[in-house]
Each structure stands twice: as structure tokens, then as C-alpha cells.
Task: structure prediction
Amino acid sequence: MPFIVYDLETSGLDPVWNVPLQAALIHTDDELRPLSELSLRCRLPAHIVPSPGALLTTGIRPDQLDQAPMSSLELLGQIGRALRAWTPATILGHNVLRYDEEVLRHNFLTHLLPPYATQATGLKRADTLVMLRAAILIEPGAITVPVDGNGKRSLKLGAVCRANGVALAEDEAHDALFDARATLALFRLLRERAPRSVELMLANAHKSGPIRLLSSGDLFCLGGQSALVPAVSVMASPGNATSWAALDLSIDPASYLDGSAEDVAGLLTRSGPRPVRMVKTNAQPIVLAWEDAQHALPADRLDDAVYNDRARQVRRHPTFQRHLTEALKNRFADREPSPYPEATLYSGGFLSDADMRICARWHELPWDQRGGLVKHLGDVRLQAFANRQMFLEAPECLAPEAWRKGRDWLRERLTTETDVPWLTLPKAIREVAELRSSLDPQDADRHAHLDAIERWLRERSDRQQMAA
Result:
């Protein structure tokens, strides 16, 4: 199957409140020969305040935020079109399942695009960071693992590439196109040096692979950050068939099987060794058949007969599975719903097919005709996002009252001193001061970059105050 290798550089770290500023996608054949390459940059939307730390890391200058050739809406639309044009494929990146994909999902939602476009029919999803961890566990020595200045293992893209002879200089890292090319080169290296690990993990690039293994009831090996453990699945989470509860069989179940319902619920959140592990089957989990990975279990592993006996104890226990079912049902019951529509991707329900058809039509129409479609959207989140995009992209098409409402919203969004989850101009200016105190006084380039960021932030703040 062909591959789509991609990378994003964003305005900040929180996927809910930030946007991609750069995107790069490389389409390859199944032998990893590039077929097409797409490199995109966009302007910063008016309601987003970029993290000064993120700008320092990526090297993006403030003037680039205003002068990029396309809008955020246009950049995301091009990504969506590329995914559709290059299907079928396996989508691939480094640490994308935990970060870049979350950025895409939340931004697709707020820009009236299908949030789960990377999971459309014909697409699989893989991550070189996950495959690298699997290779370290089951084919140790195949890949050189670098250590940082504190003597800790580092699996960052640049560090791993440089340790294994893949070209990615320090000044190239955090540029989307350079990072995408380096990810492709790292994946080639993994396929060459750790072919069995890659083969096994690509089988988990679609949820059907892990679900098949978990549904069997057999012992399997479950991988985490740094070790494999013997495990057995218990059940899929009620209401979420892609999330499965599994037990770490290196922990004797006699220590928790007879616990109360409250005790069992506590197993999901307690610190230290956790007997109950949640497996996200749609996030390329390191779940490996017993015969494929038992050789890599820790040296103090027990006999297989012990693990099988512990699995039988769990299955035969009269109350444990009932208590676990209740715990999983109530796992997120105490979470307060967010008052902000951007933060409701997972709590606000799936978008209807009818609304998605209206959104698709919305993107096709000229700006002066899009407003008429908003009232036909059934999801109030989409109505809010459509009105926002109208104000940000085509304010001249709004009625005077709608324009004034948008102006007031933007000013409050950028300048509020109340405690909000997004970055405001006052908070960003304070962040600049904190960063400056931590910089090497001799690093003139970074100090100059930070000075430019502060000037840009203060100028933007002054414009908002003058418009008040």
C-alpha cells in the first residue's frame, strides 16, 4: 500500500487552541519512492495568539505569520483534498497519533471539514515513534537509540535521525518539509533494520488488527514506553468499541479481583504499576501476538502456565468483570463539559451526514452565498464555526450587526484577562519575559528573534486597544 508521510508545525502545543502554520505531505508508492510532495504555509488566523516558545522552536519570524501565501482555511482544505486524492494509503508521521492528528481533527472541525478525514475508508494510520518503540523492544540493537544531555533516552525525530545517519541538521528540524523528508528516511531505515517490527506494527495501523488479537482471548504482549508485559484482554469499553481494557498479568490478580466496585474503578487511575491498561485499537497500539514477542518480555518473567492461570482467574471471577464494566461506563462521568465549542470534538457527538453535506457545499460556494447555508446546519457548533470563518475570511459579506458582533468577539478573545484555556495577548507577552530570562545571554540570534516576537505582540495588542 502507498504511504502519505506528513508533518505539521503549529502555533502552539495544545491541539484544541492552535493551528498549523506549516504542513508538508509526501505521497509515496509502497516501496517508499516519492510520487508527489506538498509544502504549505498559511497566515495566522486573527483570533490565534502564537506561543512565543513555539515560534522560537520553529524559527518562524513574526512577519511570516502575516505574509504567508494562503489562509488557514485554504491550507486545511488542501490537506483534505490531498488525503482524498492519495487514498488508499497508510498515513505516517513521527508522533503524529498523539499530536499532529489531534491538531488536524480539531482544526478540521473548526473549519467545517470532516474531523476524522484521516480515518476515511482506504486509509490506515501509523507512527514512526510507535514503531521505533516496538523495534527497541522486540529487535533490540537494530536501531541506535541516542541519549540526551541528562543521560536519558531520546526518541525525538532529530536525535534519532542523527544517531542513525539520517540527515536532519539542527537548523532544519522543525521545518515541516525537512521533518517529513526525515520521517520518510527514518521509516526506510526501520524497514531495513527492523523489518519484523515494522511488519507487525503495520498490521496494527488499522483497528481491525488489534481488535482481532484482543477478541481472541489469548495471551499477548502489550508494549508501553519502555517494556513489554504479558497481558490478556477483558472487554471493549461500553460505548467505545475501539477502547479495550486489558490486564497486565505480571501483577497477580489476586491482589485486586475481590475489590469493591470503587476499588476496581481506582485501578484505572492509580499511580504506579497499573493492572488495568486501556488499549486504543485505532492508535496503532503495541499489541503483539504471544509467539511474536514473548522472547522480549523481561528476564524475570514467569512460566506461561502462571499467566494462563491468572487469565482464567479473571474470566471465572463472579464480580470483577461486572465491576469493571461499571467503572468503564463511568470513567469520564465527572468531567465538566466545556463551554467552548472548539473543545467539544469528543464530547459533543459525531457530526451528521446531512451537516457534512452542507459543509461540503459551503466550501464550494462564493463567500457572499455561504451565509445562507448556516441556518440549515443542525449542529450549533458548526453554525458558530461558519459564522467565525465568515468574519475572519470575508467580513465584507456580513451584515453590519454581524460584523460588530465578530469584532467584539475577536477583541475579547485576544485581550481578556479572565482565565481562559487559550493563549491571549497579555499571557503571551508575559511568556516572552519568562523565555528571555531562561535564554543564554550570549545567544544573540534567539534574543533578537524574541525581541521581534515581543514587538509584534505589543503592536497587535495596541491595535486592539485602539479599536475598542
In short: The chain is about 45% helix and 15% strand. The chain has a mean pLDDT of 95.
